[in-house]
């Protein structure tokens, strides 16, 4: 999506360690108009796909997911990060390894909010190694529901998450795929 | 707002300890259409108020705040919860006591995203004792910006937060004010 790529070029910061900082418009300050256009684009991409629910993880996935839910006119559910790995039987849960914080956390979704009838789009702001998404996929699977597709704002194409998910047969739509970043701030997008 | 009050009557759970659980439509599963109508109502209430930015706290404030930001056509900023109280000089910060988790946490906002020119609406899903909002008010004050008003989905009118903020001169608009809840699930709204 040219609009998002341009915005990344103008406004993102490349930090050492392959960090792409987009706090200016995506995950601390949020440009709601841009979000809205991203939601529109996801709706266009998945226009022939039946969707009953949008699922994301708190916190930085919520804004993108909201815009997608709005376009599809379906509820949004966000998985909650849980401090301990002890969860009760009212929730579906998955363990997720955070490469950013170098620790494992547990994500939970109340069993009330996903049923086996649900056709779900997963949404997140970033896709790198895919750990968070694989957690959500496990949760959807445990509920007997179906993942219809995955909506990502920015995919780090030089990490394996997207490739592996596509190889498993998931449809992954990323609005911008970064194939290369250099410490002097140059960003190369997949054509 | 009658729509929200009716939804609370139909869909909320009253749990022991004066807990009002609205995970079904407000802060775990989110009814985006309801959110949109709430945003519309806040826009009506503050229609004569200049607003340059919406500020909330992750995570459960984000969806309501998104809908308000969309109506005003301004950016949304969410304060982040910080694990340690050590913060760097690039952020405004405030300590907030969480009565729910019985511990103190720190919220931070990058100095880049609030300036002394900003006219800010604070948004949150709940107002009880006002601890989180007072943290946001401190942050806005530290930035030299102005709080134009406060937008709350559900205020617990039997706790002191709203009363104290109004006494300090803040305009607080709560779409539903619960004056009384009983363990058998009865909820009484302020007229």
UniProtKB/TrEMBL annotation, chains A, B:
> What function is annotated for this protein?
Converts the preformed base xanthine, a product of nucleic acid breakdown, to xanthosine 5'-monophosphate (XMP), so it can be reused for RNA or DNA synthesis.
Per its record, the protein catalyses: XMP + diphosphate = xanthine + 5-phospho-alpha-D-ribose 1-diphosphate
Which residues participate in xanthine binding? 20, 27, 156
Which SUPFAM superfamilies does the record associate with it?
A: PRTase-like (SSF53271)
In terms of superkingdom, the source organism counts as Bacteria
Is ATP-binding among the key words of this record? Answer: no
Entry keyword set: Cytoplasm, Glycosyltransferase, Purine salvage, Transferase
Q: Name one GO cellular component term.
A: cytoplasm
Species in which this protein is naturally found: Treponema peruense
Q: What pathway or pathways are given for this protein in its record?
A: Purine metabolism; XMP biosynthesis via salvage pathway; XMP from xanthine: step 1/1
User: Which InterPro entries does this chain map to?
Assistant: PRTase-like, PRTase_dom, Pur/Pyrimidine_PRTase, Xanthine_PRibTrfase
Query: Could you tell me the Gene Ontology terms of the biological process aspect for this record?
Result: purine ribonucleoside salvage; xanthine metabolic process; XMP salvage
* Family the UniProt entry places it in: Belongs to the purine/pyrimidine phosphoribosyltransferase family. Xpt subfamily.
**Subunit relationships:** Homodimer.
Molecular-function annotations in GO: xanthine phosphoribosyltransferase activity
Q: Which gene encodes it?
A: xpt
What does the entry list as the binding residues for 5-phospho-alpha-D-ribose 1-diphosphate?
A: 128-132
Q: What is this protein called?
A: Xanthine phosphoribosyltransferase
Q: Where in the cell is it found?
A: Cytoplasm
* Phosphoribosyltransferase domain location: 41-157
